[in-house]
C-alpha cells in the first residue's frame, strides 16, 4: 500500500495493521500506545457490550486517560475491528468455531478425552457438517411452473414435416425465422 500525503494517526495504524512489513513497519511510541488502548477497548466491548462500562475500565487501566479520549478510543476500536453487535451469521459462526477450537486445545493439553470429543461434536454442529445446510430452501414447497411457447402455425407445420424425416436441421428453421421477424422502430425522445 503506497501512502501519500499527510496521514492521520488512524491511517497510520490501519496501514500498520494491514501490512506490518510494509512502508509503516513501526509505529511511534504514542501510536503504539493508542493501538494498545484500541485493542483493549475492543476486547472489553466484546466482553461487556457496554460503552460506558468500557470507558470507565479504560480510564482505570490507563491512568491520565480522559473520558472523552476513552470514548474516542471505543469509537475508533469499533471502526477498526468492526461492530460485534452487528455481526453476521458467518461472523458469529467463526467466533463460535474459534472458541470451540480453543476449548479443544485446552482439553488436549489436559488429556481430557471426553472434552475433546464434545469439542469435536460441537465443531461439527456449529459448522453444519452433521446436517443438511439450513440455508437451503425447502424444495418440496417450490411451485412447479409450466412455460408455454407459441410458434406460428407455419413454423409448427415445418417442424412436424422435419420430424417425419427423422432429422431436424435447425439452420433451416433459423433461416426461415427471418420471414416472421418484424423490424423494430427506433424511437427518439425529445431532449
Question: What is the gist of this entry?
Answer:
Helix content is 59%, strand content 0%. The chain is mainly α.
Description:
The protein is mainly α and 191 residues long. The protein has 3 domains: 75 residues, no CATH class; 41 residues; 29 residues, no CATH class.
Head-to-tail CA distance between termini = 46 Å
| Rg (C-alpha, Å) | 32 Å
Total count of strands: 0
> What is the overall shape?
elongated
Helix content: 55-70%
Biggest sheet descriptor: none
Total number of helices: 8
Q: What is the percentage of strand-forming residues?
A: under 5%
The arrangement of helices and strands along the chain is HHHHHHHH
Average pLDDT figure:
80
Oligomeric organization of the protein chains: single chain
Q: How many structural domains are formed by the residues? A: 3
Low-pLDDT runs = none
**Class based on secondary structure composition and strand pairing:** mainly alpha
Task: Kindly list the characteristics that best describe this protein.
191 residues, mainly alpha, elongated
SSE layout and pairing:
Layout: H1 9-18, H2 29-48, H3 51-61, H4 67-81, H5 89-109, H6 113-127, H7 153-165, H8 170-177
Helix pairs in contact: 2-3, 2-4, 3-4, 5-6
Amino acid at each position: 500500500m503506497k501512502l501519500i500525503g499527510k496521514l492521520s494517526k488512524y491511517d497510520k495504524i490501519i496501514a500498520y495493521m494491514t501490512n506490518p512489513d510494509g512502508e509503516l513497519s513501526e509505529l511511534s511510541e504514542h501510536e503504539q500506545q493508542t493501538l494498545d488502548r484500541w485493542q483493549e477497548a475492543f476486547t472489553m466491548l466484546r466482553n461487556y457490550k457496554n460503552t460506558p462500562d468500557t470507558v470507565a475500565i479504560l480510564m482505570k487501566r490507563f491512568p491520565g486517560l480522559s473520558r472523552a479520549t476513552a470514548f474516542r478510543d471505543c469509537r475508533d476500536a469499533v471502526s477498526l475491528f468492526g461492530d460485534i453487535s452487528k455481526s453476521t451469521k458467518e461472523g458469529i459462526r467463526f467466533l463460535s468455531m474459534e472458541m470451540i477450537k480453543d476449548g479443544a486445545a485446552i482439553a488436549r493439553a489436559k488429556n481430557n478425552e471426553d472434552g475433546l470429543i464434545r469439542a469435536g461434536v460441537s465443531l461439527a454442529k456449529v459448522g453444519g457438517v452433521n446436517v443438511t445446510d439450513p440455508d437451503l430452501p425447502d424444495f418440496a414447497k417450490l411451485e412447479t411452473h409450466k412455460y408455454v411457447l407459441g410458434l406460428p402455425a407455419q413454423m409448427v407445420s415445418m417442424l412436424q414435416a422435419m420430424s417425419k424425416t427423422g432429422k431436424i436441421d435447425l439452420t433451416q428453421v433459423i433461416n426461415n425465422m427471418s420471414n416472421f421477424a418484424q423490424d423494430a422502430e427506433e424511437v427518439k425522445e425529445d431532449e
